[in-house]
Design brief:
Elements lengths: L2 H22 L7 H29 L12 H4 L5
Helix pairs in contact: 1-2
Protein name: DUF2630 family protein
InterPro entries: Uncharacterised_Rv0898c (IPR020311)
Pfam families: DUF2630
């Protein structure tokens, strides 16, 4: 497995998680724009976790993890973490 690719995915996940925490900590609740951004962040996190799992599964099976692809948000939403 490409360590660099996995590190990049993990860095993206960490960045998105930080943004999600900051949004959740917004005093007085989220504005409509912030609510929209929160949904985008959540979808992106679902996609990143799915991609990471795909890559790891492919590597475990002796397949090329770089062939894993980002799946549509509708396919991976609410994916268990």
């Amino acid at each position: 497995m490409s360590d660099r690719a996995e590190k990049d995915i993990l860095a993206t996940i960490e960045s998105l998680m930080e943004e999600e925490r900051a949004l959740r900590a917004t005093p007085g609740g989220l504005s409509p724009q912030e609510g929209s951004r929160m949904r985008e962040v959540e979808r992106s996190l679902d996609q990143c976790w799915d991609l990471l799992r795909q890559r790891r599964a492919r590597a475990e099976q002796g397949r090329d993890p770089d062939e894993a692809e980002v799946r549509p948000a509708s396919q991976v939403e609410d994916y268990p973490q």
